[in-house]
Backbone:
């Protein structure tokens, strides 16, 4: 076989592999959109579920996911950004710094269901928060932390060193340099990382199974110590646990979750590409 | 292994006031918090999981029967289930993932790359429960009809979906690795008369092999820890897989066992403690996989530093 024929064959296989990985993505999203759209109505989005979730809306699940995501953000965003600032701007190469890096690698790899166990052990039982939005948000926050730390650190490291040197030589302190020079420059990158991290938290089911999620709770939570419905868990419940569930409601719920998560993904992509186009260094 | 701190050391002219010192102390504390969280996770897994070793004989934990209602807590079928589903996922994800990564990094024109990369990120963003849901409604009937199995809920069904979960990590890490192979390597090969494909297969891919290996490891880590997708499509029968034929039978994984059973056990019961023991096993597996993957990265860095100096 001539080597040019080999090349044609090989490139053909590469294209096939690429099609096999990417076409299903389009099909899945398209299929859910097509099958879920007929279920979407004002009532579906804003009403309580009725008839054992077989009718009515998914309002409490939407609110629950919003609250859990917001709770995750409140904890994980400041903590993650601060940790990244420490690693990028302050940390010297010491054994302790290396330990922090190994810890982050480790946190990033822990299966989500193990985070659920941890949240159950620490927040729900030991600290007595019960199955609650608070316990679920804290669990999700720790799970999200490594994503936010590593993307933020990368964004900080991308800011040219000259910016810092100039600021310090003009008499700025370390914190002034970070606050006024480095952070604004790194903001788009940080935002992208934060959104991608929160996107993952919003779509996760396993960590909230035993820490926050309620099977069926047709009212809105009153306090952070209330359990809540959430979109991913609700989809799991109506897909596997409720007999005689109308398929349309399942697809509708999947579509709402997908729109929620993918719009975050979309914003992240937009922010990144706009920042790239505008960057002057 | 740790890149240098970026801020130049403080010159004497700009003295930080005490509010600034407090902020810096907080930043430092945030940095250390990652260690604290890992310690807390280990501590609470051990606290709830270790008692199981006193309540169930270690030999029974390694038994071949998982049937908690009758106090059979053999973890082997679950470990076997996780391994076979993950193995299937790797067999599917590696060729497709590497093929996609090579295509994106080496073959595709720029406009196509700018289209494909965000598309793969969409896959990374799909919640596992959505993938599991689609698996139940679309893939399961397909498997049932083509393989003639009674339900279509098999390890193989789980493997296909897990491959989908592992693909984005695999593709993006492998693509980064290929991308960081110096241009001059390719130019040298092409100048010697190699075809583009010979250059890719004999020069670029071998040069990026440690990064590609990392990609595979991280993909495995992602697959073995995945919970909801597998729980929804693998049938959850705790049966010890014996051979590759088990790929087409229902299985139950470590992760799915925790997720399915934790809601129904009494806090502090033997069953409850054993589920935490499973959590410890999963923690150890993911720790080993991720540490290996990152060790490969560090080795790679050292090697390239040697090459550059």
Residues:
């Amino acid at each position: 076989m001539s080597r040019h024929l080999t090349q044609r064959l090989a490139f053909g296989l590469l294209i096939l592999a690429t099609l096999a990985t990417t076409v299903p993505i389009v099909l899945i999203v398209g299929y859910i959109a097509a099958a879920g759209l007929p279920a979407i109505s004002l009532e579906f989005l804003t009403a309580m579920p009725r008839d054992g979730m077989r009718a009515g809306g998914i309002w409490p699940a939407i609110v629950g996911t919003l609250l859990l995501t917001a709770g995750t953000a409140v904890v994980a965003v400041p903590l993650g950004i601060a940790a990244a600032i420490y690693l990028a701007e302050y940390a010297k190469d010491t054994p302790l710094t290396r330990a922090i890096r190994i810890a982050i690698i480790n946190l990033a790899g822990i299966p989500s269901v193990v985070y659920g166990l941890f949240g159950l052990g620490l927040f729900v039982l030991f600290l007595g928060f019960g199955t609650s939005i608070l316990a679920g948000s804290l669990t999700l926050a720790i799970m999200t932390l490594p994503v936010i730390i590593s993307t933020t650190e990368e964004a900080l490291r991308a800011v040219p060193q000259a910016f810092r040197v100039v600021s310090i030589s003009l008499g700025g302190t370390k914190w002034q340099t970070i606050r006024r020079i480095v952070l604004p420059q790194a903001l788009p990158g940080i935002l992208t990382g934060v959104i991608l991290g929160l996107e993952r938290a919003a779509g996760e089911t396993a960590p909230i199974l035993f820490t926050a999620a309620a099977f069926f709770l047709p009212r809105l939570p009153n306090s952070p110590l209330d359990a809540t419905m959430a979109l991913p868990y609700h989809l799991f419940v109506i897909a596997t646990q409720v007999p005689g569930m109308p398929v349309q409601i399942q697809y509708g719920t999947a579509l709402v979750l997908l729109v929620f998560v993918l719009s975050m993904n979309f914003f992240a992509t937009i922010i990144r590409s706009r920042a790239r186009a505008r960057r002057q260094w | 292994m740790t890149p240098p701190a970026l801020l130049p050391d403080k010159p004497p002219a700009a003295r930080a006031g005490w509010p600034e010192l407090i902020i810096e102390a907080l930043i430092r504390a945030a940095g250390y918090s990652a260690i604290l969280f890992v310690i807390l996770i280990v501590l609470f897994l051990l606290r709830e999981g270790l008692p199981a070793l006193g309540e169930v004989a270690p030999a029974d934990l390694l038994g071949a029967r998982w049937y908690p209602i009758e106090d059979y807590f053999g973890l082997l079928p679950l470990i076997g289930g996780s391994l076979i589903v993950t193995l299937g996922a790797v067999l599917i994800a590696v060729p497709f993932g590497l093929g996609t990564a090579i295509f994106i990094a080496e073959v595709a024109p720029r406009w196509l790359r700018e289209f494909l990369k965000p598309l793969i990120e969409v896959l990374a963003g799909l919640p596992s429960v959505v993938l599991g849901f689609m698996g139940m409604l679309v893939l399961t009937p397909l498997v049932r009809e083509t393989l003639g199995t009674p339900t279509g809920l098999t390890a193989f069904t789980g493997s296909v979906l897990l491959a989908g979960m592992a693909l984005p990590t695999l593709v993006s890490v492998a693509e980064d690795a290929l991308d960081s192979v110096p241009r001059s390597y390719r130019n040298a090969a092409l100048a010697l008369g190699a075809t583009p494909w010979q250059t890719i297969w004999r020069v670029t891919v071998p040069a990026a092999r440690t990064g590609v290996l990392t990609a595979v490891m991280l993909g495995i880590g992602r697959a073995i820890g995945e919970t909801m997708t597998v729980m929804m499509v693998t049938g959850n029968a705790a049966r010890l897989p014996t051979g590759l034929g088990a790929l087409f039978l229902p299985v139950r994984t470590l992760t799915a066992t925790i997720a399915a059973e934790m809601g129904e056990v009494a806090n502090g019961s033997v069953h409850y403690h054993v589920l935490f023991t499973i959590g410890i096993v999963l923690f150890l597996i993911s720790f080993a996989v991720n540490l290996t993957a990152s060790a490969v990265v560090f080795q790679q860095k050292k090697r390239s530093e040697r090459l550059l100096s």
